[in-house]
């Protein structure tokens, strides 16, 4: 039975898992769980992931959720996945685990909270909280600084000085791509000071996973264009730029 | 060269790493990094962990931070650590990774935010934010419910139906022990409805790691007694109970 990946491409951890499968030639069936229709909370989906979140996988009789755990599982059980994604070497693996763990309470928490409390809240029927957005921006900016000064220290193309990407590059780069949904002025204010993140490392990750990276992110670029059009029509923003692809 | 563990026993992930080392007979030197004196932010410590957090380890020339990554590393590289802590079986290992990943944005986020915005803030020189505390309590309560209904589903003694504890049991149980610092009325309101967590699973984890669990938590029990005494003196609380050890 083919691997099933339950995902919504608007969700950054979903995209990381989908890109990983595609880049590594893992045969799978993508089952769309539409977050905007709250399908992740349906009783049927909660049989797959009782936490009601995407992504999740079903591999034979085995069910798994949490994207980092999924990426590690796929890297370990599917033959032919190149070692650089999650090295067998315990020291390199430990460092990748450290980046992945750090991600949760820093880059992810900052980015998700900021996006939800600005552009995505209204789409999901939530009221944005400006104070929460301001605090999230601080965490997000400090996380981007730390990526540059700590994880991207040195001359490597990827996190931890790697010459090839690991699952940490993929997970964190997909998180940063979520900022594409922001108003241009917000996106430039937040990402602008972090050229090494934006212009080098995310680009390197995209190139290393081309053309799958853009293919899976296409939904995000379309959503961005749609939101901008809506905001322009409603007059809440003067910004009608076409979506940057960063 | 002996393993060095940089830790503050007032920090729950520090305690998890210390208990793990002691229970598994791993020889190590404990280096105290006093958070109340902001030693985690000193230039010397930032050479060990540039993120300025505890715990961290140095094993020979190898430095590592983030407690889950540390626990996984220790379980994998130290000979003689029983398999149940982090099983070689990829399916069981994947499920443990899933619990550990879930922990970050749920139980940990709820518990840390609640404790800091109630009892711990004033000790650390931070002003508690009642709205943040109220939101954190919701996340904390919902996380405790999910531990009971999902991770402790069935009749196992430990998370995921285990008969013996894994590193996930240790990490999450140490997080819940942090609630010992709360005022009794708050602790009872939050933990009271979750008997399976409080009376069974945390007790099972404590018993399985006895006497190391209480030994490492002793600092916490003393701090609780001290805080209660201070609050009683300042008249901000009528509660002068001796500390429960849950």
CATH architecture of the largest domain in chain A: Up-down Bundle
SSE order of chain A? EHEHEEHHHHHHH
CATH fold category name of the largest domain in chain A: Glutathione S-transferase Yfyf (Class Pi), Chain A, domain 2
Strands of the largest sheet of chain A, in order across it?
A: 2-1-3-4
Strand count of chain A = 4
Overall pLDDT of chain A: 93
Summarize the amount of helix of chain A as a percent range.
55-70%
Number of helices of chain A: 9
Q: Identify the quaternary structure here.
A: homodimer
Low-pLDDT residue intervals, each spanning 5 or more residues of chain A: 237-246
Whole-number total of structural domains of chain A: 2
Per CATH, the class of the largest domain in chain A reads Mainly Alpha
Main beta sheet of chain A, described?
A: 4 strands, mixed
């Amino acid at each position: 039975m083919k691997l099933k990946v339950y995902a919504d491409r608007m969700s950054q951890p979903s995209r990381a898992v989908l890109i990983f499968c595609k880049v590594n030639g893992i045969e799978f069936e993508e089952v769309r769980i539409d977050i905007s229709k709250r399908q992740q909370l349906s009783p049927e989906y909660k049989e797959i992931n009782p936490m009601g979140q995407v992504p999740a996988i079903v591999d034979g009789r085995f069910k798994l959720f949490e994207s980092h755990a999924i990426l590690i599982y796929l890297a370990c059980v599917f033959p032919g996945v190149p070692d650089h994604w999650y090295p067998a070497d315990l020291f390199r693996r430990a460092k990748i685990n450290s980046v992945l763990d750090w991600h949760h309470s820093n880059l992810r928490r900052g980015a998700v909270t900021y996006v939800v409390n600005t552009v995505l809240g209204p789409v999901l029927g939530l009221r944005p909280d400006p104070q929460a957005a301001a605090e999230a921006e601080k965490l997000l900016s400090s996380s981007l600084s730390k990526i540059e000064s700590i994880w991207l220290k040195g001359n490597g193309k990827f996190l931890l000085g790697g010459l090839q990407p690991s699952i940490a590059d993929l997970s964190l780069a997909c998180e940063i791509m979520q900022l594409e949904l922001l108003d241009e002025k917000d996106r430039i204010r937040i990402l602008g000071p972090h050229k090494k993140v934006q212009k080098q490392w995310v680009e390197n990750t995209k190139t290393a996973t081309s053309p799958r990276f853009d293919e899976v992110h296409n939904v995000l670029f379309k959503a961005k264009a749609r939101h901008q059009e809506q905001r322009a029509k409603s007059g809440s923003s003067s910004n009608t730029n076409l979506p940057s692809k960063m």
